[in-house]
Amino acid sequence: MTPPRLLAAVLAGKAAGTASRLVGQGGGTTLPGLIASRIEPRTLALLAERLTAGSVLITGTNGKTTTSRLISSLLQGLPARVVANRAGANLVTGHTSAVLAGAGLTGRLRADWGVFEVDEATLPSAVAELKPRAVVVGNLFRDQLDRYGELEMLALTIERGLEALPEGATAVLNADDPRTAEIGYRLGERTGRLKVLWYGLDDPSVAISELPHAADARTCPRCGSRLDFQQVYVGHDGDYACPTGDFRRPERDLSATSIQLNGLDGVRFTVAGVQVGAALGGLYNAYNLLGAFAAGTALGLKPGYMAERLAQVPAAFGRQERFLHQGRRFTLMLAKNPAGFNEILREAERLGGGRHFLLGLNDRIADGRDVSWIWDVDFELLAGECAAETLIATGVRAYDLALRLKYASLKATVDVDLNRALDQLLEAVPAGAEGFILCTYTAMLDVRALLVRRGWLRPYWRT
Amino acid sequence: MGHRLTIGWLYSDLMNIYGDRGNIQTLIQRARWRGLEVRVLELGKGASEGIETVDVFFFGGGQDKEQELVYDDLLETKAIHLANAMQRGAAFLAVCGGYQLLGHYYQTAQGERLPGIGLLDVRTVAGGKRCIGDVVIESDAELGLQPRTLVGFENHSGRTYLGDGVRPLGRVRRGNGNNGEDGSEGAVSGNIFGTYLHGSLLPKNPHLTDLILSRALNRELEPLDDSLELAAHNWIKDRELSGSRRA
Ligand SMILES: [Zn+2]
């Protein structure tokens, strides 16, 4: 039986979802949750209790959307019914909206699993409400510090969230990230009861030997000495140890070896005796793939099954989408902080010269209001080997971006208006060539909306 | 003299947040564009070699934890060298955490006073709410900057108060500045500049960059084409002063 107040909350929330979809206010990703929570503040917890199998949470600064989608896909293939929040709707209202979408009008939940990407700062409340069976913590790159104060605080918040995990739950942690590792170490020392599953990459052939400038966890979290990195994979993720011997990368329970990168088309590696691959390009997607594989392992899925299932993942799964228009190829990618941006630029560099870029920078709340991070992006890469042919800066802070490029000895044209900037890109890309669109979060939403309006992409809540 | 610029980057590994690298890149490029040879000396923990050759020091902000890590080294290894550099007229730009550490002390929420190195006559007290957001200031008339405004982004919880030995870098037109109370932002004394503005500060304020460079090199600098710099400067200035910012 559904208690009357919960029932009222479900009905009101679902009605709000339908209405917002009808008037075209996007996918109804947060409004239903907001409305329902006003009527019954415990809507999320009460509905989550009705999941037959339980839930999984995914957090970390980069890659949580892709990792969440991969985990959903793994569970759906079992088969199982999965509710999941939409990209970016990673606060409690977004989670509530997600479970509401999976609930019938009687408040009965037609789902087995809940898969939720969680904003790092709200992990404690998400754990309290959802009582997950596993939490994946990917990486902690410098990101939106103006929203949360400082990275250290964020790490402590995540630690507090994991500390409250229910008995038998697993913390699935990226061993290659020094800050994530420190969270795991401290939890082990303090509670001792928590199950930790460590994952990481182990293939020097895809590593770079030096930390990029953007790396922000270069120092030992124990003593402050500069960490020695044997390998660097993405951002500050790699194989590290403190010269004083008090801190090093944890031993991996799941280690990805023989990593093969195929540009933006795919990545594959060996883990737990199976070959895992997916149509997701870039080394950063190796982390997303491995994180999903590790979460699946924590939930008892078999390696062979997961390898088979992940191989079927469609390319548009990641935070990169590709489309064809008038014989030209376009790739749309989210680039929201230095680590993510540098990864994409490195990827572009691997592809060789003669590239065309549209770069979009906004400074709304969801992007982070402080745009100073662009000075930590290695745009200098575009001046080297890969010799960008076209650079167009757009978005609210287009001038800041163009200025950053100027000091990297690159010349960009500026157009604050997205529509015109997009037209410029179309004009610049010759037939048969490829254009890249790299944007911060809300700039990405704006570009996407434009592309949908022009009929080149489908709206995201229907995909 | 003057054919070479040496930048001393204090604690480049630990005190490098909020795009401090942008300030370094701007100093480098604007010197190079004028035909100077540029050298960057990274002055990490324990390092002081070559410190006597530095023309301009940059001291950025750090997270609380990292600030704690450089603290002893600053007092024990660097303070004496920096005082000497000040005597011989080297320029300093200190932002946020670096600015606080150049002052007399930082008083924690518990009332403990952590001494700074006292190159600037300012004191900082731990505050409650963080001051975060875009800032526009009207620079102090004595600096003779053209345009008068400086733009940046602040993110600090410390409240800094100025003594008689410094002048403010400017008056706040938008944002909080030193303490959110007296309308002042930053501090200047001789060739030492302290401020809460990052964003990064120097790229969008080429006039301030050139002032610091010319003080460091003790000579006039030929003008550059700053149309893009000023377009970025004016864009954010106009938005913030017109109050048209949207969420
Ligand atoms: Zn250590």
UniProtKB/TrEMBL annotation, chain A:
It comes from the Bacteria. GO terms for biological process: cell wall organization; peptidoglycan biosynthetic process; regulation of cell shape. One of its GO terms (molecular function) is metal ion binding. InterPro entries: Lipid_II_synth_MurT, Mur-like_cat_sf, Mur_ligase_cen, MurT_C. Keywords: ATP-binding, Cell shape, Cell wall biogenesis/degradation, Ligase, Metal-binding, Nucleotide-binding, Peptidoglycan synthesis. The active site is at D370. Forms a heterodimer with GatD. Belongs to the MurCDEF family. MurT subfamily. The lipid II isoglutaminyl synthase complex catalyzes the formation of alpha-D-isoglutamine in the cell wall lipid II stem peptide. The MurT subunit catalyzes the ATP-dependent amidation of D-glutamate residue of lipid II, converting it to an isoglutamine residue. This is Lipid II isoglutaminyl synthase (glutamine-hydrolyzing) subunit MurT. The lineage of its organism: Bacteria, Bacillati, Candidatus Dormiibacterota, Candidatus Dormibacteria, Candidatus Dormibacterales.
UniProtKB/TrEMBL annotation, chain B:
Substrate binds at R130. CDD domains: GATase1_CobQ (cd01750). Pathway: Cell wall biogenesis; peptidoglycan biosynthesis. Its EC number is 6.3.5.13, 3.5.1.2. One of its GO terms (biological process) is cobalamin biosynthetic process. Residues 6-205 form the CobB/CobQ-like glutamine amidotransferase domain. Keywords: Cell shape, Cell wall biogenesis/degradation, Glutamine amidotransferase, Hydrolase, Ligase, Peptidoglycan synthesis. The active site is at C96, H198. One of its GO terms (molecular function) is glutaminase activity. It catalyses: L-glutamine + H2O = L-glutamate + NH4(+); beta-D-GlcNAc-(1->4)-Mur2Ac(oyl-L-Ala-gamma-D-Glu-L-Lys-D-Ala-D-Ala)-di-trans,octa-cis-undecaprenyl diphosphate + L-glutamine + ATP + H2O = beta-D-GlcNAc-(1->4)-Mur2Ac(oyl-L-Ala-D-isoglutaminyl-L-Lys-D-Ala-D-Ala)-di-trans,octa-cis-undecaprenyl diphosphate + L-glutamate + ADP + phosphate + H(+). The keyword Hydrolase applies. The keyword Ribosomal protein does not apply. InterPro entries: Class_I_gatase-like, CobQ_GATase1, GATase_3, Lipid_II_synth_GatD. Belongs to the CobB/CobQ family. GatD subfamily. The lipid II isoglutaminyl synthase complex catalyzes the formation of alpha-D-isoglutamine in the cell wall lipid II stem peptide. The GatD subunit catalyzes the hydrolysis of glutamine to glutamate and ammonia. The resulting ammonia molecule is channeled to the active site of MurT. Forms a heterodimer with MurT. HAMAP family: Lipid_II_synth_GatD (MF_02213). This is Lipid II isoglutaminyl synthase (glutamine-hydrolyzing) subunit GatD. It comes from Candidatus Dormiibacter inghamiae. The gene is gatD.
